Amino acid sequence: MCCTVSTPATRAAPAVGWAWPCSSAVCATRRSAEVDPFLDVDLPLPDRRDGKVRVSFALPDDAGGPRRLFVTTDRLSAFDRIIAGVPYKGQVLNQLAAWWFRQTADIVPNHVLSLPDPNALIARAATPLTVEVVVRGYITGVTSTSLWKQYADGARVIYGHRFPDGMRKNTALPYALVTPTTKGTGGVHDVPLTVAEVAEQGLVPHKRWGEVVEAALLLFRRGQEVAAQAGLILADTKYEFGAAPDGSLLLIDEVHTPDSSRYWVADSYEARLAAGEEPESLDKEVVRRALLDAGYSGDGEPPVLPAEVWEAASRRYIDAFQRLTGENFEPGTYPVTPRLKEALRDVV
Length: 348
Known about the structure:
Blueprint: H1 25-29, E1 49-50, E2 54-62, E3 65-72, E4 75-78, E5 81-85, H2 89-103, E6 112-117, E7 120-124, E8 127-128, E9 131-139, H3 147-152, E10 157-158, E11 161-162, E12 171-182, H4 195-200, H5 206-229, E13 232-243, E14 249-252, E15 261-265, H6 266-274, H7 285-293, H8 307-325, H9 336-343
Antiparallel strand pairs: 1-2, 2-3, 3-7, 4-5, 6-7, 8-13, 9-12, 9-13, 10-11, 13-14, 13-15
Helix pairs in contact: 2-8, 7-8
């Protein structure tokens, strides 16, 4: 048993020859292409809000109430900092999140209304809850809020859960744990919370928080089941919830993407664990590890990483998309902004 239960300027990644892991004609034409990542967008829409990866704008209300446009850029964040941009990453995130929203709509309603462009999503406006809901099925991670980092530093009560001595990194927990954090903004790191503290501190009303925890655990179970069918292990993930105009609970932002989740390849997991090696990951962990190896953990200016790191990250994102959805990834045209404005012509 394990438990008792200001941002640095965004930089483009070094240009590389992208070799996409698919055989479609579109991918073939881009195997050696070099494109500038999509880092920002300027649209003539009100109430712009900037996140680490997404930019959102207010849209005119429809019969259902307020709407927002979410544009997913190629920016990559790690340690609560924007590090660089990786071409096509935004498209992968946007389309994979939309796919997952469809797969989980029977568990909890979500904010999605339509996808007018590979990098854009029109959603029902919601009031976000003030906590991020992380669900963990394995003891792993290298960031200050991860289970393994805190455990390796000597903590045995983490997020209100008690852990025994002798645990091994990257091993399964006996059951999934909800480990909430605050939402770090403006370069401020996320702060760990216990499940009880969320309600005690008035961050989320007690009844609503109970709904959130129940939905998060059901979503995680669904995510693990679907990932297993694709030959993957969903080790942990982050959910964000909001309140719809009528007060009902909505799943918002993204769900089970390589940005918000840790995916491992199942076939090689046991052998790598026995050999003391890190699992084969299909997420941005390769970037986190490279940053740590360069002595960076979120403070100061991030180092310039080799082109090979960004190419590896790109391959992992697209591989995750194709494994999970069973579809080929069809890259959109670059530059993104002209294409996006054309797709949004009737909206903008």
